[in-house]
C-alpha cells in the first residue's frame, strides 16, 4: 500500500512538471494604450489650441496629459472623482483655478464634463503651476518634467524632495541637467506612481 501511494505521488509530480508555465495575467489597458496620443491630439485640437494660446502653455503637453489621464474620453471619471479629459478634481485643481480667476467655490461636475471647459480649467491649472509654484525653473525640458509630476501629485511634494525651502529647491533643480532631474524623480519622489506617470506622459509627448 505504501509503495502504491509513493508511485501515485510520483506520477502526480511528473504531471505538474510537464505542464507549461503559467503566464502572468496581462496588465489592464491604460488610456495610453487605448488611444494613440496623435489621435487624441487631433480629436481635441480645436480646444487645446485655444487654451494653449490663451494661457501660454505647450499644446503638445496638454494633449499628452489628456492622452494619459483619460485616453481622450470626456466622460471619464476616476475612483477619486477626477472628471473629464484632463481628470480635474473640483475640490483641488478646480477650486484653485476658480480662486485664481476671482471666482468663489469650485466647478460643478457638469462643467467638468464639458470638453471645452475641462481643457480650459486643466490648462489654467498648468499655468498656475508653471507661473507660481514652479516659477524660476530655467530649463524648458526640466520645467516640462516638473509640470507633469506636479500635475498629478502636486508641486509641494516634488519640491520637498529637494528642500523644504522653495527657493533652495528651485536652485537645486536649476543646478541639474534635465536627465538628472528626470532620474531624481524616478528615484526620490515619495509617490509610487509619479515615476510611471512621468514616463507615460513624456512618451506620449514625444509621439505627438
Written account of the structure:
The protein starts with a helix and ends with a helix. It is globular. Helix 3 (37-43) packs across helix 5 (59-70), helix 5 (59-70) packs across helix 13 and helix 12 runs antiparallel to helix 13. The chain has 13 helices and no strands. The protein has helices spanning 2-18, 31-34, 37-43, 45-55, 59-70, 90-100, 109-113, 115-133, 140-153, 155-159, 166-174, 178-188, 194-207. The chain has 208 residues and is mainly alpha-helical.
Percent of sequence in beta strands: under 5%
End-to-end C-alpha gap = 71 Å
Structural class: mainly alpha
Average pLDDT, rounded to a whole number, is 87
Q: What's the total count of β strands?
A: 0
How many separate helices? 13
Gyration radius from CA atoms, angstroms: 23 Å
Helix content: 55-70%
Low-confidence stretches: 1-33
Oligomeric state of the chains?
single chain
Helix/strand order, N-terminal first: HHHHHHHHHHHHH
Q: What summary fits the major beta sheet?
A: none
| Shape type | globular
Task: Please give a quick description of this structure.
The chain has 208 residues and is an all-alpha fold.
Layout of helices and strands:
Blueprint: H1 2-18, H2 31-34, H3 37-43, H4 45-55, H5 59-70, H6 90-100, H7 109-113, H8 115-133, H9 140-153, H10 155-159, H11 166-174, H12 178-188, H13 194-207
Amino acid at each position: 500500500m505504501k509503495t502504491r501511494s509513493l508511485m501515485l505521488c510520483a506520477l502526480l509530480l511528473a504531471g505538474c512538471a510537464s505542464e507549461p508555465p503559467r503566464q502572468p495575467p496581462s496588465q489592464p489597458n491604460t488610456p495610453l494604450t487605448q488611444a494613440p496620443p496623435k489621435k487624441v491630439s487631433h480629436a481635441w485640437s480645436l480646444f487645446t489650441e485655444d487654451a494653449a494660446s490663451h494661457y501660454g502653455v505647450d499644446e503638445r503637453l496638454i494633449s499628452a496629459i489628456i492622452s494619459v489621464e483619460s485616453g481622450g474620453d470626456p466622460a471619464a471619471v476616476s475612483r477619486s472623482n477626477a472628471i473629464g479629459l484632463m481628470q480635474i478634481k473640483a475640490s483641488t485643481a478646480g477650486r484653485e483655478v476658480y480662486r485664481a480667476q476671482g471666482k468663489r467655490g469650485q466647478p460643478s461636475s457638469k462643467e467638468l464634463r464639458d470638453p471645452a471647459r475641462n481643457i480650459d480649467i486643466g490648462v489654467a491649472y498648468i499655468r498656475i503651476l508653471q507661473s507660481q509654484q514652479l516659477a524660476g525653473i530655467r530649463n524648458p525640458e526640466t520645467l516640462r518634467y516638473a509640470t507633469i509630476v506636479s500635475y498629478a501629485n502636486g508641486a509641494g511634494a516634488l519640491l520637498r524632495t529637494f528642500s523644504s525651502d522653495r527657493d533652495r529647491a528651485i536652485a537645486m533643480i536649476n543646478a541639474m541637467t534635465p536627465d538628472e532631474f528626470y532620474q531624481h524623480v524616478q528615484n526620490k519622489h515619495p509617490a509610487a506612481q509619479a515615476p510611471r506617470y512621468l514616463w507615460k506622459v513624456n512618451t506620449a509627448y514625444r509621439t505627438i
